[in-house]
Design goal:
- This protein is α+β, with helices and mostly antiparallel strands.
- The protein has 21 helices and 22 strands.
- The strands form 5 sheets. An 8-stranded antiparallel beta sheet has the order 9-10-11-16-15-14-12-13. A 4-stranded mixed beta sheet has the order 2-1-5-4. A 4-stranded parallel beta sheet has the order 3-6-7-8.
- Helix 11 (about 220-245) packs parallel to helix 15 and helix 17 runs antiparallel to helix 18 (about 490-500).
Length: about 575
């Protein structure tokens, strides 16, 4: 059991949340004032002529809406070690590597202690509501969490994925203890250099502490599914480890072996029990509650692109409830799930008005706006309307001001005076299966790289599009090409591998390496296929002058997908990550 410690007062957390959300507009003004006062000396704000003003009206008049691309010159100076106060008053010492990409490169996002504190505020808030409905005892959590290595930037800053920066922060471990969610695995497993070995040891730790496990967690639903798919393959090996008290030779990292040797003791009775339970299951249905009889729920991000994994997750979970984790991004947090009993498909997130300053661009402009190509003006947090969709604008504590997050959300209601949001989609996202995020630009860059291989054969790509195929397990990207002439199989196999390698998004590369996303497929279509797609759109009343080839064809676009699939001449699967 956990050592005795001071836990947080959950009733107090809920009371504070209720108070803050009752007057969200005032809290937003105060939050903006605090952000601007603390960072008033930052070069970025100084150049915009705020002159010390901190009210929302002056802020909106002086500070433009920006994308990551607009901020890149400032962020690169920070990354390269410029000591001046560039985006924040206090120096930024850590950089998060976003899984999203800009111009085909991973994004750098500033990270600081203030942002870490907002992370813990979100965790505490959602835990308080979760624990009120599904109380957990003072046990352990089986957490499938993995921390990649931090590295030093040219300017000496620590850099890593957003989750790595959180897991390596001292506040995280203390905070997790305070909300009774301490990981059952040692740090050596979490911070291990090999994903497969860490996953195996997470499973083994879970079995060793099976009676104490109160909840099962991973950042994303697909990681939970992947963990228990792996269990199906290695369960007998895990039983053997427990029976003999000796760790499998598949774990070779010395630090992990040393840490696990302190936990692993020969326990034939436990090995027999696990063997009996696994042998008695029908197609692994209800595996998780069988293994962990005191677990109360499964927890992780289960919305948006994670929804396809819920069917399999429910199969493993049996009667255990699934709960969707909070809503945020590498750039910071937005809202907490304070309605934990809702199924993930219906999950909503209440915006915490004290963790940042939020604005919302209506997705539905007036007719006049559309004709003039003017974007509707952003509205404040408390001015959004139920049932409408918006793009989120974030001003945070780590140097992002009126930053376009690129997420589209729907307002489903209000909690007191702050809105409840449901995630709809990424505004510019084209291809996504789990944590991968690839835009039209990323697809274009990938095709450009691969078409260089064709150019050596004096051929070119006439046109292209893409599709996410979720009918396979795991899902994979399909790229459709129309080529200007005949080309041999070896060249096209190399094109296929090049396409796969050219998606540099951290989420995609990481998922491909652990088979969370299957090999990319190149389908070469017959000459004239894209003209048939044009004809289809013209038949619907489109004008040739306005026609654009859809760069990503979703399953909902059945006719276009059918035209493509009916005209496939050759198919190739990538071996780039084999």
């Amino acid at each position: 059991m956990l050592e005795k410690m001071e836990t947080i007062d959950l009733d107090q957390v809920i009371d504070e949340f209720e108070t803050i959300t009752k007057d969200a507009e005032s809290v937003q003004r105060e939050t903006l004032q605090k952000i601007l006062e603390e960072n008033g000396s930052a070069e970025y704000l100084q150049n915009l002529g705020l002159n010390g003003r901190t009210d929302p009206e002056s802020f909106k008049d002086c500070v433009p809406l920006v994308t990551h691309q607009d901020l890149e010159p400032y962020i690169h100076r920070i990354v390269d070690g410029d000591p001046a106060p560039i985006l924040t008053g206090k120096p930024i010492t850590t950089i998060s590597l976003s899984s999203g990409t800009t111009q085909g490169k991973p994004k750098f996002v500033p990270f600081n202690d203030e942002l870490m504190e907002t992370t813990m505020q979100i965790y505490r808030t959602s835990f308080a509501f979760r624990n009120r409905e599904f109380p957990i005892g003072n046990g352990k959590a089986l957490q499938f969490i993995y921390s990649s290595k931090q590295f030093k930037t040219k300017g000496g800053l620590n850099a890593g994925t957003a989750t790595t920066n959180v897991y390596r922060n001292a506040q995280f471990k203390d905070g997790m203890k305070a909300i009774q969610s301490q990981c059952c695995s040692p740090d050596e497993v979490i911070f291990g250099p090999d994903f497969h070995q860490s996953l195996y040891c997470h499973l083994l730790c879970g079995l060793i502490f099976r009676e104490e496990i109160q909840l099962v967690f991973s950042t994303f639903a697909h990681s939970l599914v992947h963990a228990f798919r792996t269990f199906e393959q290695v369960w007998e090996e895990l039983c053997a480890d427990i029976r003999e008290g000796v760790l499998s030779s598949r774990v070779t990292v010395p630090s992990i072996r040393a840490a696990m040797s302190k936990l692993l003791k020969a326990d034939p009775e436990l090995a027999d029990l696990i063997h009996k339970k696994c042998s008695g299951l029908s197609n692994w249905y209800g595996l998780i509650p069988e293994l962990f009889p005191n677990a109360k729920y499964l927890y992780g991000i289960m919305t948006g692109s994670m929804e396809p994994y819920l069917k399999k997750l429910r199969h493993y979970a049996g009667d255990l409830p699934l709960m969707s984790a909070d809503y945020g991004s590498s750039e910071g947090w937005i809202g907490a799930n304070v309605n934990p009993s809702l199924p993930p498909e219906s999950a909503t997130f209440v915006v915490l008005p004290q963790i940042g300053y939020f604005e919302f661009i209506p997705m539905k402009g007036s007719l006049g706006d559309q004709v003039l190509f003017l974007e509707p003006k952003p509205v404040g947090l408390t001015d959004v309307k139920v049932g409408e969709e918006y793009e989120i604008i974030v001003t945070n504590v780590a140097g992002l001001y009126r930053y376009r997050l690129g997420d589209v959300v729907k307002v489903t209601g209000f909690h007191n005076s702050t809105p409840e949001l449901k995630f709809v989609c990424r505004r510019n996202l084209m291809l996504t299966i789990n944590i991968d995020k690839n835009t039209e630009k990323d697809l274009q860059l990938s095709v450009e790289q691969a078409s260089k291989v064709l150019a050596e054969e004096k051929l070119e790509v006439v046109d292209f599009t893409s599709h996410v195929d979720m009918s396979t397990d795991p899902g994979h990207y399909v790229i459709f090409w129309e080529i200007s002439g005949e080309v041999n199989d070896e060249v096209l196999k190399e094109c296929c591998n090049c396409l796969d390698r050219s998606f540099v998004d951290a989420g995609y590369v990481g998922s491909r390496k652990v088979n969370g996303i299957g090999p990319l497929e190149l389908r070469v279509v017959r000459k004239g296929t894209f003209n048939k797609i044009l004809d289809h759109y013209l038949g619907l009343g489109a004008a040739v002058s306005q026609f654009k080839t859809p760069r990503c064809v979703g399953a909902i676009n059945k006719t276009v997908l059918q035209i493509l699939c009916n005209n496939v001449d050759k198919r190739y699967f990538s071996t780039a990550f084999s």
